[in-house]
Amino acid sequence: MLMMAHMNKKMKKIIILSTLFLVLIIGAYKYFEWSSIKQIADFYNNSLLQDAQLLKEAGEKSGNFFVEFDKLLSDKPLDYSEQLIVYNNLINSIDILINHQENTLNLTQNEYKKLASLEQKSFFLLGKTGNFARSITKTINNSYVNQLEVEKDTLLQNYVLLNTFNVWKDGYILTTYNSKGANNPSVYYKENFGEISTLEKYQKPDYKFLHEDELMSKYPINTETLIKYRDYFRLNYDVIKDYITDKIESASKKLTKLQDASVNINPNYVDLFGEGNEKRRDMRRKVIESNIDLIILLKKYKNEKPLQFLLFKEQPKFNDDFHTCLLYYDKLEYFVDVTSKYPIATTLNEFLNELNTILPKTEVIDKQFSSDYINYSNKGNNIEITCIDKNSNSRFVFNRDKSY
Fold first, then answer.
1. Interatomic CA distance for residues 43 and 48, integer angstroms
2. Furthest-apart CA pair in the chain: how many Å?
3. pLDDT at 20
4. Burial of 105 from C-beta contacts in 10 A (0-12 / 13-18 / 19+)
5. Cα 155 to Cα 72: distance, rounded to the nearest angstrom
6. Most exposed of 76, 181, 204, 232 (fewest Cβ within 10 Å)?
7. Is the dihedral of CA 86, 90, 96, 99 positive or negative?
């Protein structure tokens, strides 16, 4: 009898300890589940803030470029020194854009790497929570893959611009120099040879434009045109050197080749400026589509409310409405690129309807979007979109100048 009582006590103790152990295991898993979803939410929200800041900075920096480019196209005549200042300002603006784009690309690549650890964690989550975590991280992953393609291409576009404006600047210097020396080249070239010192770099046999090999594979028309300029500059420099060293006969023999090289440049500006447009639009469309997919997924799970962490005071929150506002600004830029026109809408609803006249459409998320997260204005030559992040009480103002 005493033995049975002792055994019963021992069994009760084992049951109690087992129950406590099971509670601890369940509690530990629930904490792991909660912390995993919170980490995904924090990653998502922080990435949006970073993207918004980078997008705002990019808009501001590109604005400086267009201000200078307008001067180049202006009917107001510029003297030699003024035009060189404009070229230098344009080149400096592109350098700034390249630095910003390289920083953006590095940050996006780092975020993409961080996402991998969250994806791995999601495979240890069970049930609806596990399905949610895996769906979200997979969709974010797709978004990053598409975004990285766009950012790499944008960087290459900026290098095309940088090389092009450097060549145009050198061409302007050479044209001015030749014009001044046309009446008496032997004398003028000798006395002012230093004016074309910028062309000396093209004489190096191994001289290449920035990222020339990569640009040749992605933007062959632009790169081939740059190479034609390089050949022309080399030959022109040789002719001028013959004049200043009194090798008049040698210079005369090269003049025919020089004329041929000049004619050979013959850039088709429609092809130059249109190169890669369709490919670029396709990449941007994929980015928009992947962001739409992500927002729809977040709203679906938010509506179904599968994630209720009752044991924890702080519930993971996904800032999908702020994301939607950023998406509308991206869609605005895409709309302008595809249609070559600006929205005429003066109200938010009209604006969203106008954006939905082209694919991809956002109608599904438009119906669930809270207008508390956006301010829209379309007045004069400016469209202004303000995106509001209520989590951090931040406001990001994006302006689209309709004069460009």
1. 9
2. 129
3. 54
4. middle
5. 23
6. 76
7. negative
Average pLDDT over residues 11-31: 59
Whole-angstrom distance, CA of residue 240 vs CA of residue 185: 8
The two three-digit tokens of residue 378, written as one number = 């379309």
Residue 324 half-sphere exposure, CB side, CA atoms within 13 Å? 25
pLDDT tens by residue, 181-224: 888 877 888 899 899 999 999 999 999 999 999 999 999 999 99
Cα–Cα dist 197/174, whole Å: 10
**Gap between the Cα atoms of 297 and 356, Å rounded:** 20
Output the CA angle 45-285-352, nearest 5 degrees. Answer: 75
Distance CA 312, CA 101 (A): 40
Number of C-beta neighbours around residue 349 at 10 A: 11
Helix H or strand E segment including 42: helix 2-73
- Measured CA to CA, the distance from residue 271 to residue 222 in angstroms comes to 8
195-200 long-range contacts, CB within 8 A, separation 24+: 196/237, 196/240, 198/169, 198/170, 198/173, 199/170, 199/173, 199/174, 199/233, 199/236, 199/237, 200/237
